[in-house]
């Protein structure tokens, strides 16, 4: 069954038809000048300038679609050009595979898988949708399918590019920071999540939401992470009061790190880019986790658990060559 062509397809086919007409006019120009000596004929550059082609492309069209008969008249060289048989069917620009707009069973299969995956993960772009769906198709093909189906492009975020660092192995360093998820409907307090992310693999190691961002909760959550994933060599944090002992503050975090043989590294003051990976994770939560502005603690916990599983196990990561954080973490341990 022939499917209705999209606006993009109609424009593409219109452009092909225009190209065919221009190529036919180029060939007519050569034939029209039969009877002129080779010296009197228009040059390849002149013809190319008239039709918007390079002189090398004009030569290619001439050699491909015209037969040339060379002769002399009174010692003056002439050339008579005639079109090859069936040339009109060859004027359209060629492309591999089935003609655009002609849907094959394989393309239908790709289309169905891509659209189903996109409907489940609306915030992801074509490359990640193609990876998750498992289709054997290029990024441009997946992008074309999504565009034909009417999905809007997921644009890349543009900003200042910073030089990135990365630890060589999993558990070499964890980055930690708190992020606010919303408001607890029961108590009216802000719901906090302690992000503990592995620097090498970007795997999210923590999964606990709370309304208290305290040193006690930080130590409890880190103990749970160590029990499940092992002890990191270093922990990178900002200067938050939960772990920074500046100006006579709470020293328990540094004491805990020392007891575990963990080096505590703090980023520069007002330099969030030092913790770029955990900040990027916070951005992913805001864009993709679909968290409400207000809910119960249990509802936030369920939503975060669901998103963390997707982030770790399913969602490809550009910095990991479109591998998942869990696969890289397990490979490197």
Folded structure, characterized:
With 333 residues, the protein is of the alpha/beta class. The chain folds into 3 domains: 7-90, no CATH class; 105-148; 174-332, Ribonuclease H-like superfamily/Ribonuclease H (Nucleotidyltransferase, domain 5), CATH 3.30.420.10. It contains 11 helices and 8 strands. The protein has helices spanning 7-32, 44-51, 55-65, 105-120, 126-133, 139-148, 215-229, 252-260, 276-288, 297-313, 325-332, and strands at residues 66-73, 76-83, 174-184, 190-198, 209-210, 234-237, 263-266, 294-295. The strands form 2 sheets. Strands 3, 4, 5, 6, 7 and 8 form a 6-stranded mixed sheet that branches. α2 crosses α3 (55-65), α4 packs across α5 (126-133) and α5 crosses α6 (139-148).
How much helical structure, as a percent, in the residues?
A: 40-55%
Structural class: alpha/beta
- The structural domain count equals 3
Number of strands: 8
- Span of the ends, CA to CA: 52 Å
CATH topology of the largest domain: Nucleotidyltransferase, domain 5
Structure in a nutshell:
The chain is α/β, with parallel strands linked by helices and 333 residues long. The chain is built from eleven helices and eight strands.
